[in-house]
Hints:
- By secondary structure, the chain is an alpha+beta fold.
- It is built from ten helices and 21 strands.
Amino acid sequence: MSESFDIAVVGGGAAGIAAAVSSARAGCKTLLLDRRPAAGGTGGFSGLTTMCGLFDSEGEWLNNGFTREFAEQLAAGPPRQMGRVWALPYRPERFRALAANMLASAPNLETRWNTPLAGVTAQQGRVTSLNGLEIGAVIDCSGTAEVARSINAPCMETDETTQAPAVVFQLSGVQREWDSPAAAARDLLPLARAGMPPLNFQPGPDPGTVTVKFTGPPEQAPEVIESLRAKVHGFEKCQAARAEFQEAHRAGRMIIGQYILTGADVLAGRKFPDAAARCAWPVEQWSADGRARFRYLPKGVHYEIPARSLCAVHARNLFMAGKTISADADGIASARVMGCCLATGAAAGQLAAERLTLSGTR
């Protein structure tokens, strides 16, 4: 007989970490697998230093439980207000270390790294095995719906008109701060004239650090840094925290579930009787030319994500969290942010455990 697990979680980013720990804490024998060498995903490896989607417009926590537990231990300082939203500063190395510690200390949990998804089988509307292992349920936290694709479950997709990937990296040795967006735009004008892509800046977690984001190929990052040193006051001595650069995928493929969260639900602050998570992040879309479009919820309003958006229609034991939840292109443009990924991951882990208990399969 092959080895078996109650729940398999595919993807070791924020959603997968939350799903695996939550299902294991609920008493399920849980497996977390990822093609990377360690847990972290976008939060630990992309260069991001702020976690979005944790707070409402007043800076109050929207989700408790594992989401708040992880975020409070991760924080590199108090929440920061950035215009009309709030974000939590953190250090990527702390994200990776905290994830490793929580996974190692969770009961009933096994991790397998450098392990691509392979050999997924489904019978009579259920996923029965993956990678040669028998499973009771699976939670797809891959960000690209890898489990769903393997069994031909129906999905929706974003494209580069709404969720173009970004290159994100941290610079140290920055010796200035901008007083206003207008001042930043003025100082960056020479870069735009030189053909550089539009750049987005956020304060880093430490003094003299800045997180830079742009839409373009990773190979362009060294040229961007050299241009900043040469043309923008205060960046003359800046240094990149890492020598390698990669794309961070904002969103890609969403599994069709029992309910499809829409952009209209988000902007109206819709509530649901089977609410599994809360979010107040705006509908944030990025085009391939690096231009952003934000549509904000009314002040003081948040929306809920129903449990039905975490349950696939094609397979009754397939659940999803993070960037793969059942949402249209506008809905996922809000729900994809990391704080919300933690919340839907924790909810999916608990939901899968409850369903297995009710069905008597564990």
